[in-house]
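Notes from the 1:1 (GR / supervisor)

We went over the backlog. Supervisor wanted to see one worked example end to end before approving the batch request, so GR pasted a single chain during the call. The sequence is below; no edits were made to it. Supervisor asked that the structure be written out right there so they could see what the output format looks like.
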Amino acid sequence: AAAHAALALFDVDAAGLDRLDRAVLEALCRRFGGGPVGLSTLAVAVGEEMLRDGHYFEAIQQIEPTLQQARGALRVRARRAIARACLRNPKWAKRAEAHLLDALQEDPARVEAHLLLGDIYGQGGLRSRALSAYRRALDLQPHNRQAQRELARLEGAEAPPRVSGTLLGFLKKR
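Structure output shown during the call:
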């Protein structure tokens, strides 16, 4: 009974597999038809599964080590996944932004990265940056509903008056 309780505590099933083991096997079988697949590709796929299951920190830990080996589309995919995981923690918005900017430097045509940047900037009160990110997404994908909706929302809202950094802001501080 104590052994079963210990295994349950560590989420080990009757076959002796833990959550990571199951995620690797599931990704290998479901996404890659049983193989062959490179280790970096498998690591990113497992991290994406963890992200979908709501295990954000584990997803970051799974994917980050692959960034050094991954190239091209896989590296961009890994950066986007890490950014999505980072966005689950408001304190990591800058980290998410950095990953997205790096991904866009490698592949500027990634609509999802522009949309996520728009979300980050919008939540951070950076209206003009958010507008720019959503417009870029629409340039790449003219019928993207999320970009259309967010642009309409931001353009419909009156721009907040800038106080700090202006003469009026300087005078109000005095």
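Supervisor's comment: Residues 83 and 96 are 4 Å apart (CA to CA).
Batch request approved.
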